Amino acid sequence: MQKQPTVNALISPEGSLEILSNHEVNRLKDRSEGGLYQLFRQCALAVLNTGAETDDTNDLMEAYADFDIRLVPQPRGLKLEVVNAPASAFVDGEMLRAIREHLFAVLRDIVYSSTISNSVPGFSRDKPEDLTNLIFHVLRNARALQAGRQPDLVVCWGGHSISREEYSYSKEVGHQLGLRGMSICTGCGPGAMKGPMKGATIGHAKQRVKNGRYIGITEPGIIGAEAPNPIVNELVILPDIEKRLEAFVRTGHGIIVFPGGVGTAEEILYLLGLLLHPDNADIPFPVVFTGRQENAEYFEMIDRFIRNALGDKAAEKYEIIIDDPARVAQTMKKGIAEVETFRRAMQDAYHFNWMLKIDPVFQLPFEPTHESMRALELHRHQPVHMVAANLRKAFSGIVAGNVKQEGIKQVEARGPFEIAGDPVLLDPLEDMLAAFVAQNRMKLPGDSAYIPSYRIVSRATETQ
């Protein structure tokens, strides 16, 4: 990635968090391993780089190695000083308002996530109920939870590296959702995360919807690869990928999945692993897989992989709709109406799905390393939700090796992550990954061909 022109500027708050304690300021300035400076700098640079054609956090950090961000205390609050920031974030010397909002959202969420565990007596990052409460508190602090609002939030998942035609289709689906008054929540980046939001803005404009929501939920490890698109009007940064995924299913009322790569596959397996839990059997949660006619084969491949790994019961949890945006929106509207009826009957909140049971295996952070990836239990001689959980971790590791700074460094130092297990699971997995590579779904097209961050290890090799 080539560095673009830069500017220095002093930025006033926009949208959130103008006041910090001395302790919080000191932690943000602390450049040691236990401090927050490096994390804050990485996320801030990603936000300032919105719109750039890159999905490699490592490249971004190297291209802007001289970027700095500093807190400047003021009598009535604080300001941020940015040094050597991407000039694309400014117009006539003034930072774009959306980027300024996102920058202070980064500050808000990093500070809050780092302090909440110390402010809640008895809090433990190993307790499922405490982790769910942490997610709730982060979302509430970001004002992303709106009590009293009728269910209308559709989560859209899909690839950041997609074709122009696939992007246009995702935009038309968003348009149809917007015409029906529904709001959009995505991973906040480009591609299938931006398309539905852009389409929904037009639908909302036609229906004079003035309170449309475009929520972007991300986490520090991925934000450099998927910088918030400018349509996002509510940005929330969760501490890690597991909490990000839980935030999607707790706040959303239904999910639409567009074509994508390993990140999308990770999300699908996470979602199905939850919905297959016996305690969630009666909880309505509409899920639609959709794409253009040219994507029919893609979803047939995904469907075969799911049925092979998780069984036909898993396939009952979603509906595949090809090349029909209006039907997708109608299906989602009907499904969300059922969600509203159920929540009302069960006296569960509209704004946060407290009833959804999430097994701890889906909540506790998975740190992809060569050892942890090699040790994954990838076989079908275990409960189906554990199959989904371990496959989800395998995809999470590939995502890390593809676009996350720490994962990229590990692969560069020690070679690809090895994925071993039962060929009954791994052969279809290898075929699907090969299809992702052939369809350019692993990373944004660049100057060089994609080099896999993973290597499938056969059982024969494993036993040698």
UniProtKB/TrEMBL annotation:
Record's catalysed reaction(s): AMP + H2O = D-ribose 5-phosphate + adenine
Name of the featured protein: AMP nucleosidase
Domain Pyrimidine/purine nucleotide 5'-monophosphate nucleosidase N-terminal positions: 10-114
InterPro entries xrefs: LOG_fam, LOG_family_nucleotidases, PpnN, PpnN-like_sf, PpnN_C, PpnN_N
SUPFAM superfamilies, per the entry: MCP/YpsA-like (SSF102405)
Organism field: Marinobacter zhanjiangensis
Signal peptide: none
EC number: 3.2.2.4
